[in-house]
Amino acid sequence: MTGRMAPPGWQVWTALGLVYVVWGSTYLGIRYVVESLPALLAASARFGLAGLLLAAYLVVRRGRAALLASGRQYANAVVVGLLLLLGGNGGVVLAEDQGLPSGLTALLIAVVPLWVVLLRMLDRDRPSSRTVLGVAIGFVGLTVLLGPGARPDDVGLGPAALIVSSSVLWSVGSYLATRLDLPSEPLVASVAEMLGGAVGLALFGLLRSERVHLADVEASSVIAFAYLVLVGSLVGFTAYSWLLGVAPVSKVATYAYVNPVVAVVLGALFVGEDITVASVAGGALTLAAVAVVVSQEGLRRRADPLAVPADAPAQMPDELQGRDRSSAT
After folding, report:
1. Could you tell me if 33 and 224 are in contact, meaning their C-beta atoms sit under 8 angstroms apart?
2. Digit-coded pLDDT (tens) for 15-47
3. How is the chain split into domains, by residue range?
4. What gap in Å lies between CA 172 and CA 187, rounded to an integer?
5. What does the buried/exposed string (b/e) look like for 65-98 if buried means 16 or more CB atoms within 10 Å of the residue's CB?
6. pTM, 2 dp
7. Comparing C-alpha atoms, which of 163, 156, 160, 152 is closest to residue 276?
8. What distance in Å separates the CA atoms of residue 254 and residue 227, rounded to the nearest whole number?
């Protein structure tokens, strides 16, 4: 922010509030979408439209040259997009389609930063002892959340286990995004990730024989779909991108543990999802662990820039990833 006047505090907190509420609400939006729209095809259309709109924005603002990148960079971005959106978001929509509450889904996804720490450890990056303790606490919370008391009686372990698998794939995609050679312009990388993920989601949706039955589509699903594209993807994306340039890393990173709380509250208010003792206990442990990891790793890399996510909270701040684009190969 050198050479630029810092924006008023109310603007920063307004943008941060938008990120909290908008990204926290995407889980509820998915819940409404899958009620009458095919899960994977709807997710494909969501990210495909968002990617095309973002690409159009770049061309209008900067010309077609804004989309220039090497074939290798685009290919790498597509791989990341498949992991984030097909592997990560695809699991989310399928789990919610199978009845997993949106709030519990968000709490299970919240462990993504903890998986990333483990991936870094495998890559011989030694986190601090406090970070390791935070990861351990987080996985205790995850175990509680996977137990029967945190899930509705009619929802088995399968959808919850699917979310855990999705969070691992999400983490791998986020981690590779710090190691692969991607387009130097983060928005261009996001376009390629969204479009690549959209194609993957569409192919798997067709393999599952998903079809759109127009007579059965409910207005709430259509409204929620539009909300996810225009607000969840674009408004949240814009607010977050702006925050990257004007707010401290530690403040922006708080979305990682505020979004799940917003998702739980919205799920309870709008669709009557139960908040059980087990979900509160497991969620509290998980979010406390994420807060410890975010703050502790932020101290290690406070000078590093943040990455612009492809959409929603699919990627997390770079202080969790050790991002250094100059070393990408």
Report:
1. yes
2. 999 989 998 999 999 999 999 999 999 999 999
3. 9-321
4. 20
5. ebbebeeebbbbbbbbbbbbbbbbbbbbbbbbbe
6. 0.87
7. 152
8. 23
